[in-house]
């Protein structure tokens, strides 16, 4: 039996310092040995959002301890690690630089290959940590910074079918939470408030619902919520607004995902049609069950990462590292941190006023 690769993954692109060790079994399925995540929520809470300098300082303070913990708890030793994979972008440059430099130094000292990873590719491949998925597949990536439909043709081969033209979906959840007086990060709290409310109480706009293919837009929703939130007097009205917001998001994603299915099928004809949902918002149970039903109706197999792998983590970075390691796709030690790094490098920039859809 040949030795299976052992990959160290490191993530520090935003407000989570994370390290993970993964390997694989004889059938080629990944095994997550450790997945250590240190969140900085308490540091940023009082500011209502991530403060880059504070985030970077906290990464510097913790990165060595987190990596040590990931190795110690894995039952493996440093010498057994075959490659080091670090997030190189996109993200906050001061934060990215910490995990990237640490990973390079670690790889250099241990004389192992270094692999620079696109954080979004980490999310894209995260469901592979617990499900066998063949390329091509359709991906909906819904996180705090990105909302995109992508056709995943292979490792490093992405074709963007649709994107948000303004706010990311996680951002829309966080902003709605803020307007409802919920502490940062409010996205997950909206789900809890919504469970107690009437989803039909408020009618909210659905920007670009009937145009723009499977592109998305959420900024108009925020404006509507701002207006309504000023009229709210009772806790129940707050729950109702959260529920109405969540229902509106479900309706938008239902319609846009259907369009994404047909876009995907224009140039893919896989044996089995697979729809993967990843990123922090994929943890939302209402959105999950709506998308699951939609997949059943349209003969797609739906795959979600385990809830603990939806948000930022290093196991997904190690997963990309594992695939690249097997293809010997290594990076140079001068690989830069890349704050803006699209998965589909040919996709047009679609943000801001005057965007033509
Ligand atoms: O993927 P992620 O951890 O970080 C980024 O790469 O952005 O996503 C974080 C986002 C936040 O905006 C957070 O509010 C949102 O995911 N989120 C949720 C839920 N859990 C996390 N949004 C809606 N419902 C949830 N249960
Ligand atoms: Zn992320």
N- to C-terminal separation? 54 Å
**What's the total helix number?**
10
Q: Radius of gyration, rounded?
A: 20 Å
Low-confidence region ranges: none
Mean pLDDT: 94
Helix content, binned percent: 25-40%
Helix-strand topology string: EEEHHEHEHEEEHHHHEHEH
* Ligand identities: 5'-O-[(R)-(carboxyoxy)(hydroxy)phosphoryl]adenosine, zinc ion
Q: Biggest sheet: strands, sense, closure?
A: 5 strands, mixed
- The strand order across the widest sheet is 3-2-1-4-5
| Structural class by helix and strand composition | alpha/beta
Can you count the beta strands? 10
**What would the principal axes of the Cα set say about the shape?**
globular
Strand content: 15-25%
Oligomer: single chain
How would you sum up this structure, described in words?
Helix content is 39%, strand content 18%. The chain is an alpha/beta fold. The chain has a 5-stranded mixed β-sheet, sandwiched between helices. The longest helix is centred in the C-terminal third of the chain and has 33 residues, at 235-267. The radius of gyration is 20 Å and the shape is globular. The chain starts with 6 loop residues before the first strand and ends in a 31-residue tail after the last helix. 51% of the residues are buried. Residues 119, 123, 143, 312 line the site of zinc ion. Zinc ion binds at residues 119, 123, 143, 312.
């Amino acid at each position: 039996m040949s030795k299976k690769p052992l990959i160290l993954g490191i993530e520090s692109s935003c407000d989570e310092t994370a390290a993970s060790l993964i390997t694989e079994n004889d059938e080629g399925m990944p095994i997550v040995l450790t997945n250590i995540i240190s969140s900085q929520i308490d540091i940023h809470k009082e500011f209502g959002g991530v403060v880059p300098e504070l985030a970077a300082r906290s990464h510097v303070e913790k990165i060595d301890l987190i990596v040590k913990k990931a190795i110690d708890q894995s039952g493996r030793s440093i010498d057994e690690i075959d490659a080091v994979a670090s997030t190189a972008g996109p993200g906050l440059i001061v934060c990215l630089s910490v995990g990237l430099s640490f990973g390079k130094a670690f790889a250099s000292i241990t004389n192992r290959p270094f692999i620079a990873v696109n954080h979004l590719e980490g999310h894209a491949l995260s469901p592979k940590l617990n499900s066998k998925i063949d390329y091509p597949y359709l991906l909906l990536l819904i996180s705090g910074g990105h909302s995109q439909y992508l056709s995943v043709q292979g490792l490093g081969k992405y074709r963007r079918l649709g994107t948000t033209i303004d706010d990311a979906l996680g951002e829309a959840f966080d902003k709605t939470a803020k307007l409802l007086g919920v502490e940062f990060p409010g996205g997950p709290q909206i789900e809890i408030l919504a469970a107690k409310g009437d989803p039909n109480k408020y009618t909210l706009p659905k920007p670009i619902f009937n145009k723009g293919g499977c592109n998305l837009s959420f900024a108009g929703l925020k404006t509507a919520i701002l207006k309504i939130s000023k009229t709210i007097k009772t806790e129940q009205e707050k729950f109702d607004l959260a529920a109405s917001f969540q229902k509106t998001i479900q309706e938008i994603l239902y319609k846009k995902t259907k369009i994404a299915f047909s876009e995907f099928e224009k140039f893919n004809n896989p044996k089995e049609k697979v729809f993967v949902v990843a990123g922090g918002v994929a943890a939302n149970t209402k959105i999950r069950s709506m998308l699951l039903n939609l997949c059943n109706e349209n003969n797609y197999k739906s795959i979600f990462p385990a809830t603990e792998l939806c948000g930022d983590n290093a196991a997904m970075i190690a997963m990309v590292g594992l695939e690249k390691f097997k293809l010997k796709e290594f990076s140079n030690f001068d690989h830069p941190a890349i704050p803006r790094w699209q998965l589909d490098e040919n996709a047009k920039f679609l943000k801001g006023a005057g965007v033509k859809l």
